Automatic annotation (TrEMBL), chain A:
Its main location: cytoplasm. Transmembrane segments: none annotated. This is T-complex protein 1 subunit beta. Belongs to the TCP-1 chaperonin family. One of its GO terms (cellular component) is chaperonin-containing T-complex. It comes from Magallana gigas (Pacific oyster). The keyword Calcium does not apply. One of its GO terms (molecular function) is unfolded protein binding. Gene3D superfamilies: GroEL, GroEL-like equatorial domain, TCP-1-like chaperonin intermediate domain. Keywords: ATP-binding, Chaperone, Cytoplasm, Nucleotide-binding. NCBIfam families: chap_CCT_beta, thermosome_beta.
UniProtKB/TrEMBL annotation, chain B:
GO terms for cellular component: chaperonin-containing T-complex. SUPFAM superfamilies: GroEL apical domain-like (SSF52029), GroEL equatorial domain-like (SSF48592), GroEL-intermediate domain like (SSF54849). This is T-complex protein 1 subunit epsilon. It comes from the Eukaryota. GO terms for molecular function: ATP binding; ATP hydrolysis activity; ATP-dependent protein folding chaperone; unfolded protein binding. Belongs to the TCP-1 chaperonin family. Keywords: ATP-binding, Chaperone, Cytoplasm, Nucleotide-binding. Pfam families: Cpn60_TCP1. InterPro entries: Chap_CCT_epsi (IPR012718), Chaperone_TCP-1 (IPR017998), Chaperonin_TCP-1_CS (IPR002194), Cpn60/GroEL/TCP-1 (IPR002423), GroEL-like_apical_dom_sf (IPR027409), GROEL-like_equatorial_sf (IPR027413), TCP-1-like_intermed_sf (IPR027410), TCP-1_chaperonin (IPR053374). CDD domains: TCP1_epsilon. NCBIfam families: chap_CCT_epsi (TIGR02343), thermosome_alpha (NF041082), thermosome_beta (NF041083). It comes from Magallana gigas (Pacific oyster). It is found in: Cytoplasm.
Amino acid sequence: MVSLNPVQIFNAGAEEEKAETARLSSFVGAIAIGDLVKSTLGPKGMDKILQSSGGIQVTNDGATILKSIGIDNPAAKILVDISKVQDDEVGDGTTSVVVLASELLRESEALISQKIHPQTIITGWRKATDEARRALQSFARDNGNNEAKFREDLMNIARTTLSSKILTQYKDYFSKLAVDAVLRLKGSGNLDAIHLIKKSGGGLQDSYLDEGFLLDKKIGVNQPKRIENAKILVANTPMDTDKIKVFGSKVKVDAVSKVAELELAEKEKMRDKVNKIIKHGCNVFINRQLIYNYPEQLFADAGVMAIEHADFEGVERLALVTGGEIVSTFDAPESVRLGKCKLIEEVMIGEDKLIKFSGVEMGEACTIVLRGATKQILDEAERSLHDALCVLTQTVKETKTVFGGGSAEMLMADAVSKLAAKTPGKEAVAMEAYAKALRMLPTTIADNAGYDSAQLVSELRALHTAGKHTMGLNMKEGEVGDMEKLGITESFQVKRQVLMSASEAAEMILRVDDIIKAAPRPRQPDHRHH
Amino acid sequence: MSGSLAFDEYGRPFIIIRDQERKSRLTGIEAHKSHIMAAKAVAGVLRTSLGPKGLDKLLVSPDGDITVTNDGATILKQMDVQHQIAKLMVQLSQSQDDEIGDGTTGVVVLAGALLEQAEKLLDRGIHPIRVADGYEMAATVACEHLEKISEGFKVTPKDREDLIRLAMTTLGSKIVNRCHRQMAEIAVDAIMSVADFDRKDVDFELIKVEGKVGGKMEDTMLIKGVIIDKDMSHPQMPKNIKDAKIAILTCPFEPPKPKTKHGLEVKSVEDYRKLREYELQKFETMVKQVKDTGANLVICQWGFDDEANHLLLQRKLPAVRWVGGPEIELIAIATGGRIVPRFEELTKEKLGTAGTVRELSFGTTKEKMLVIEDCNNSRAVTIFIRGGNKMIVEEGKRSIHDALCVIRNLVKDSRIVYGGGAPEISCSLAVAEAAKKISTLEQYAMKSFSEALESVPLALAENSGFAPIHTLADIKSRQIKEKNPRLGIDCLNKGTNDMKTQSVIETLSSKRAQILLAVQLTKMILKIDDVRGSADQM
């Protein structure tokens, strides 16, 4: 009751961490997250098992790992968020971005303890980021005009991306798959047209790229199983009972016979609909919704192949691939564009029957069938291939490439160090720290493979200072090598995004000097007393 | 517990307040002290966020969501405050935010300093009301002085450069200062395209701030039109429409629903067929009515089913469904169209027009947004913010909003003062001067007020890493010597203290509101001498 009592201004349960404590808590959280995913970096990185109520996942993909772990530390949450954004934006580099951000924060911890103001560090970092980006840009190569060379670039990028994943043993094979698939898109970058089907059984090397389109559905009974020169009508229409949509209508009859009559009328309506559909001149009818037995039988009588319940994505993709349009009304057959393909047949993959559309009009689409021993392997293979496909489409859009194997990071570190040497003032210290953080990426890659990272990175550093910017880590031999000869290439877009996002996030965390946590919302509020 | 017990004529205790033992109570000087402590604690949290070198706060909401911000109002709003006086401080910054939109940190720091000074006066035995009166007098002096040192500022669409500098002052303390100039330009251009210079007003309804995670901050742009987070209703509709004529509908593509309760009974096969006919016909007429007006894009507030959707595709009429109410209004304003609630009322004149309508797609996920550009009425604009993560985009939105507010205030009242703590120092000097002429007790209160004003430049200097008192003393003496009220703290180490050369500009209205609001709150807190609450609250 005396005024000397501490005054509590927050709600009970709320916490406030100030200045040094707040910073410490962000650093600890961010560095812990960095260390967690660090070991998955590079071609010799290890995988993680993620256990949840839904089963287990084995993965090497940073975004997937971070998505699945529950985190309470706010700074760590920011890092998880940037890896997710990286995944959405460019699809790869999700581990690198987190590792770089956490290394930056680790370096800044040392600077803060030397009593350098966070804003000074940030100013230094911003200059460093600009310089690094400039260096990356000026060193990036562009083979976009030379088709053969560009294809070689793409192959290299795919190989580099896949080399850190489970597909590494078959990376040549899968790189070819991925590059073929992406080049078929002819620059549209529309990943919708690439369909991934997972079927367990067989080995990874049994996976293949199918030129046509595979649909994981069944053909209706008694209908043709093979159609040449198919004319396809893709539809989204109810084929169970076509309800009357006028509001408030309901059926009220006074005799059983009337019910039967109405039933007939309904049947008649359905038959009319089927007839209208057949009038379009199609011999294949694919519907997003269910097809009941009665219309199915009618289609069978007319010799039309009817496929029901193709999900929404399937329908959209089919329309895209066959060049038809998705139809919902059937009164104007002349204005409907039918999809076409040379051959539709049932194929067997493993034990499952799939419907294969080959010779489709738009050569853009294709299907990649993944085979593998377990569900986990298939899932991981899908993620890896998805990463590779994303990176490749990004590269098709922005054709610049840089070299991998840590050479791009060393190149940027070199540029930043040179700038730091020229800059007077405390900012130079921050820039040095930035360069050091960049060098941590090749160090981690070498560490993960069990090589002598100190030796390798210092060799690399010397080489880069001497201007040999193509030098990087040769992870097969455990030595320094020329990335150009080894063909280790990465997408410029991905590298730049890693650099920008990581610096943005690190800066954001560093700017914080106060953490205020509200009391967690009680799980089950007790309403009885209110 | 003085005064909480009363006795009747026989000397028996007499209970005035029910459940007295379960209530807690603070009175007199104790109440004042406790309030001042709470207010100081709140001001202390915000102090480090002041100025271009101020740091951010990380706030975790009850649900675990994270906000990183530098904006005083946002910090306080999310701080989960329980203490009653602290809540008043929260409202203080809120009202500064509502009124001016910027300076929300400064107002709290000032109020905290005023109360801190008041505490010293109370210790010397000066009655709180006299302190409050003195503060009031001082505030009048300070505001008069502010007007004296303020300068006129030309706000015309031509003087973009000065406005950009003003916006840059506001944005200087935020994380978006990486793209400092670009953001300031965007804010100025946005205001310039919607401002009404005759009425001296800016309609904020016309400026929409949208954000999308991804890309980099440099990709932030100003779109002279509207962005909506929707895509075409049918995947095969055209993604790019030139010279769009837009029908804006608030009725669904469905058979009409009478409002009265009704039942429609199908009694025979005949009825059933008729209904089928009616339904078909209804869809046809609706599409036809739209098509007849010459529209080539339909924006609909409601949905339409697959059949209507396909019918629209066949009739080559692209459509967007489920567009929210505010967006529809914005589209109507931008395109100059009318919102039509019934198909029958649709006419050619009611269509909106736009130069281009195109779909934007982002990254590897299939997210799409629709941009309506080159509209008839270029007054509706959208600021589209990109950034590496969710927190940055959110903070970007808040920062841009602050900048917009500041420029709007300048359009309303074109007088400015210079920033960097210069007006505070100058006012502090003026108040100290005026205090000497007062013969009553209020003199002391005015002196304290003048000291409290110095808290802002002190915090600025402290956050920028200078020796605060030394720096302040230096500038104070220079202001008197050079008679230059534009001298302030050189937070960015540019080598000059003259804020005019540095172009650190703030609006007069914001500064004045800060002083007035802070004084009002201080007076109110000083007048409270008794607090009652249930025991567990205090």
